[in-house]
User: Fold these one by one.
Assistant:
Number 1:
Amino acid sequence: MPSELLTHEVLITWGTALAAFLAVALHGIWRVTRNVITIAHEGGHALVAVLTGRRLSGIKLHSDTSGLTVSRGKPRGPGMVFTALAGYIAPSLLGFGAAVLITNEQIQLMLWISIGFLAAMLIMIRNVFGVLSIIVTGGVFLVVSFYASAEVRDAAAYVFAWFLLLGGVRPVWELQVKRWRRQAPRSDADQLAWLTGVPALGWVSLFGVVSAAALVGGGALLLGRW
């Protein structure tokens, strides 16, 4: 690969990483961009609920970046445990999957998978803000997929992967801060504690380990590509 092209690609990789970092680290921006993480979070709950045989009733996304996924089935057992577990680790795992596809030259496939994921969620959304969030996010993916140049499409894919990897870490910390302040008595971690008997802090720690591992692994793939 010519040195000029290599330098260009390295700049894209680090530039998109910086852009994603700012979208996560800056509070004013994060209040908006966190909605994408909420979509991934609730989508994780929904996907695992369906895969474990539970009946998905609906999904709500709220303007304060909170969300709710309701499924029906046995109130306890592996299906409920995996469904509750999926939310906080979903953004990080999706980010790692995006990094794998990018490093295998499958950016268009990554975009189409994302569009399909959003379309499937849209069917189950049960509030107006949630519908608008999915439509706006899906519209961005459609525009990038159909109308953007190859360079813009590649940069957007990198930003998306970095954002999911980095954005999967911050909510875990925010969750524990709320738990310290006793502001999240019905969090996913507390539900898992009730379901399994394992302390909620253990589940928060697991969320943190998975998100950190995905960030390290996915970041290494993206940076190591060049």
Number 2:
Amino acid sequence: MSETAARKPVHLAVYDTYADWETGHTTAHLTQRGHAVRTVGFAAGAPVTTMGGIRIQPDLGLADLRPEDSSLLILTGASLWDTGDELAPFAAKAREFLAAGVPVAAICGATAGLAREGLLDDRTHTSGVSFYLAEQPGYGGAENYVEADAVTDGDLITAGPTEPVAFAREVFARLDVYKPDVLDAWYGLFHDSDASAYPVLMAASAAGDA
């Protein structure tokens, strides 16, 4: 069996008002590097509409998602994280993943959902701004908040809404998608528009490493 065939899928949570732009770099480059990306909604086949007006039909229902069948769960930002507890089942699923030692990556409003679930209390993390999390009921992790583009603490990755590239970088590092020097070049090109990173990526691509 090839390495690609042996990999477990990456699961991307999708729900109404999902912020399209926050995971574009992550999913596109994971796919290019041979990782299967599967969408997870409340119900398989029940379409959701993103914040950008794009309709997505989930591959899998949340109740059928098992940590042992996945390599990573990505929780995206969405307006619904800030208007009630409708998305709380996705935060509860993140708890299952972390308990099973399977990574979770949360960006933007999804960090608020994790805060309400108590998953940030004992882990270093970030978000858009510290007071956004401080407003979340039950959040007890203020002392572990870090002012950073994106943060990885063991199996948990967090990022704010303005850092989709840094978010992707942390995911790629956690899943060993690129060698460290290639990852640095990838980030330099896509985050900093560093032209010197381009030949590094081209050389890595020619060698099958990017």
Number 3:
Amino acid sequence: MDSAISERSATGATRRELTATADNGLKIVVVGGFGVGKTTLVRSVSEIRPLNTEETMTQAGQGIDETGGLEGLGGKTSTTVAFDFGRITLDAHNILYLFGAPGQERFWFLWDRLFSGTLGAVVLVDPRRLEDSWYAIDRLEHHGTPFIVARNDFGGSAHTLDQLREALDLDPGVPLVDCDARSRESSKDVLITLVEHLQSLYAAQRHAPQETAQ
């Protein structure tokens, strides 16, 4: 997937500084399989120059970081080895911190620590390799972390979102959306969907009848 961003992100002239009044940091994690576009999404939407830990894949990684047999990844030459980090200012008091998790299986041990203190998560999927998303969904459900699923655009999909939901065995309450991780507006829409999902869950919990003490 071409990693060119369709809109100019705030890594240049529109870069914003963290204000003294921003006192709430909200942590969001972007997870998914190898090469699904997590780094691209964080880069496209962050208002600061993102911190990333991408390293060039070398011959030492052959047999471990193999991409030749994976559809659409034959030209991938780098990989995230720790996490990506970006930031979005929501308002004067709230900042959204984005953490892009590494996608390769040998770095999955980092995920549980990244999930600590996480408000919610985005599971980014490549519709050509749905099986790479199962582990991410399983770990989020294990931790009880709210999440949404975003199908990244790799040139069109032969399946509908309903078919994708069935293939991933998603709960009906989990939002499922399309996105283009290269587009700032599309990536923002994904995050808005997640925030709205979190708000609806919080509202439901507030209005749920309290259990009567025995």
Number 4:
Amino acid sequence: MFTGIVEELGEITAVETLGDACRFRLRGPVVTQGARHGDSIAVNGVCLTVVEHEGDEFTADVMAETLNRSSLGALAVGSRVNLERPMAVGGRLGGHIVQGHVDGTGEVLGRKPSENWELVRISLPADLSRYVVEKGSITVDGISLTVVDAGPDFFTVSLIPTTLALTTLGIKQPGDPVNLEVDVIAKYVERLLGDRATGEGAAR
């Protein structure tokens, strides 16, 4: 489990195509500290498994399902990525519960800068809009953010200087894709209420 608090901006140093999958090599001096084969690291909000680790770099395999459901397929050598290690037991939940399971992708629609913050408007797939509410939580490229305004096909978030400086949202421009993960609690509530209405829950 992750919290959506990005630990560092990493970089893609190599991309190897493996038929219907690919292997990334990434540089991340912070997240590679103590890293071992089989560990999980969130890359732009996608939970990936460490295959190899050497120095401040690690490799991770990305299967076709992940490439199709996320924006990782658009990454190339030199791309900057948000990196986060899983939350340690007993650690602080600084953001919200993030699984690293991307629900879909959005697109940066626009940016409105202010003196001390910036408002970013992002498109929202129709099948995810019911999970996004004003002042609720959403994960964008692995960053835990609070929704400012939510519409049927978009939402907005306000970014403080720290977020702009230390994450990919500081450099994303209109037209750029972003990974989205909605609040998992909302999905469980929807399923449970649906089962109650149909009586399916009692039959299990």
